[in-house]
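== Folding task for one protein ==

=== Format: two labelled lines per protein ===

==== Paired sequence and structure tokens ====
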Amino acid sequence: MAHLSRRTVLTSAAVAGAAATFPFSRPAAAAPVALPADLRGHDPVTLRWLEGGTPPELAAGTTWGVPWPRGSFAPGQQFSLTTGTGTAVPVQSWPTAWWPDGSVKWTAHAISAAPDRAERYRLTAGTPAAPATPLTVTTGPKRIVVDTGVVTVTFARSGDRLVESIRRGDTVIATDGRLIASSQDRPSTDQAATVKTESFTGVVDSVKVEQSGPVRAVLKVDGKHRHGRRAWLPFSVRFYLYAGSDGIRVVHTFFYDGDEKKSFINGLGVRFTVPMRGEPHDRHVRFAGAGDGVLAEAVRGITGLRRDPGAAVQQAQYEGRATPDPATWDQRVTSRLHWIPAFGDYSLRQLTANGFEIYKRTKTGHSWVRVDGGRRAAGLAYLGGPAGGLAFGMRDFWQLHPTELEISGAASDSARATVWMWSPRAGAMDLRFFHDGLGQDTYPEQLDALEITYEDYEPGFGTPYGVARTTELMFWALASTPASSRIAALADANATPPLLVGSPQHNSAAGVFGSWSPVDRSTPAKVVIEDRLDQMHAAHLVQTDQRNWYGFWDYGDIMHSYDGVRHVWRYDVGGYAWDNSELSTDLWLWYHYLRTGDPKAYRYAEAMTRHTSEVDMYHLGRWRGLGTRHGVQHWGDSAKQNRISNAGYKRFLYYLTADERLGDIMHSLVDSDRTLLVLNAGRKLTDQPFDPDPNALDLGPTTNWGALALAWLTEWERNGDPIARTKLLNGLTTIAALPNGWAQGGSTYRLADGRFNPVTTPSVSVGSLSSVFGLIELMAEVLPLVDDETVRAQWVKFCRLYNGTREEQVAETGTYWGSLNLGQAYSRATAYAASQLGDPNLGRRAWQELRTGHAGYTEAHSFALTRIDGPAVLNPVDEADVSANASAQYGLAAIQCLALVPDQI
């Protein structure tokens, strides 16, 4: 690549950005280097369920990750799993990351819903138990068949049916699994006189078997939605099946690639055809409501009639069992069954986060009858009868509104069950920019506007083209209509999939994710810090629900800053609105979970990662690989940055769950440095023409390099593209070779190999944001891996000097670094230098910097909640004096000070 001309590289980058519809293929699973001879193994690891107790149902099965200290196991190590009482549980295991010496760093493990569940498990080196009936995958030229031992699922390799059929034994439970979408050419809000609509069906381009048992199978299906000659809305859908399970987990991702001014999606769903057997009075419909609530009805009801068929008949229908022989009924009912309306269509519509309604009708062309309503539905329905049926649902159903579960044609021989991820009962998606530019036609005008709204606006940059959304779905092929208690249990498993987790102590001892330690309340001073961390986290946690931070495109993010006058977060004020990972909120939330093991903390961070990984970054087009700075709309700001698409924010959820979608995303970021060829980040501050040289690109060694380096580190430890290791190590060593290392100004970057070009004259270019997008965390994790004393010394010097005195900075770098911001945030840099140098005075300085609270929270800051009632606010709220920036950086600084210099507190 070093011999390519600049024109060739620029052209290839532009083509790649426009044509890369999907992320790259998955990295190979093999040890990267020769193994050490002294692998030492590891004691058994105790696992528990995240939410505690023993879940009554699993969502098909569960998959989780476990870290291991360096030198513990070889990649081919087998693992066995037993319950607390010693019962062997069939488990499938595989490595997901390696240490530089080739030993396993992370492993993933999967169990089915079939085994007996326990509160605790033991994972240890050993031969795994085999499933009673191993899952099998049979691949043919036209279809792929997965047999779990309970259900058989046939996948098409082409065409508009992703799933041809789902069978349970000899019974066909469902057929024709399709992706459906519709759009219109005018927004619903503008009340256009004429609106043209189009319907689309997902068409398969490729199917890949990513895992094939014996416990777990994973199939990835890629394609586009098509209608006639038009093909758009690329999708990537994964199906997860487990041995002995009748559940199918589906992870659905779609990418928006339309013109937001002309293409308004008004429906997006997954649909199956469900054969109907038996008489209408033996066809059952179930909807999970809020809590344990269940609506239980039949297509043709025989309760509440003027004539009574008999108590046994009524009770059987209500409980979902086959009714007795009609000859045993009261014949005044039997002879008049044809007069009882059969309600073949049902719809549960969750159009807002705080209200759902259920309707039914006899068939198309007739009025809907309102059944009931509630606040927040669990997102699960069932259609079938005593001989079997399909349960279907969507995770985060009310959080990701407007959603819908629909049943149609249940009075006929063939019904349809649809999960609407965007309900056609709602208005169409309107992804247009929220204002007309306000006359900001020139860079000086845009910079001046930035001074008042904090929004970095530029015409054409507020596009959603290339953003994505991932939704998790569940389908169960059931042998009969389940009892209402099981419907409630399935709904819980769908809404909050049970997950096995290790302890904070084990995860910390494994040495993963850099500088952190489990909660420590061993001294009064530590108790104060731990309490503050808990209070601060709780203050943000309550805001999501009270402020209704929900919706298809919004759920998972939090707001950036607060407006105390209006008692609202600044949802409508430029760059103060959605956080979009600004100053590493994701990192703070994940470290809080790692330390505490708190299930609420995990679910909060999980939702944020799923959102920021999809909505806040581009997966297609010219800005593929970049994220968007914080703003009123997630994609609206004109600052497109790899510090937002940061792979470092995604690694936690990936390794804790082995989520393949996140693996795709992180892999796609390995070459995101190519965006330096197509977007000039400093375009508003210079009059020079943009003519990037691949051998001398403008990339500083801190903020954006740190985000790139986190992608390279992840790719290296996942044994992916070798260029990642090359660029990471070249970057580290050539930055360290600069006169002032990470503080040096004026160096340029080589795209081909990740090197920084030499500079002979010492200078300093340091900004307050330089290390608060994961660079500090990266360096704490990567330095023990590379074992390079020059790299370590230069980084330690940077950490020591950032909050150092003018005299220290001038003496060691020749230049005063200026009046730098975020002193509290960089207390953890001081703490790192203290721990590396064994300097207790530096350690005490770090704690003083944390407590002083420069650009953060002072020691006296209160995180107490203050109740605000109407009429001062629309809804009663608990107000706290917090901001996302300050919380994220205080949280990260306090956590790392506790880990690095606990004795100097």
User: Anything to note?
Assistant: Residues 524-546 form the longest helix (23 residues). Residues 1-31 have pLDDT under 50 and may be disordered.
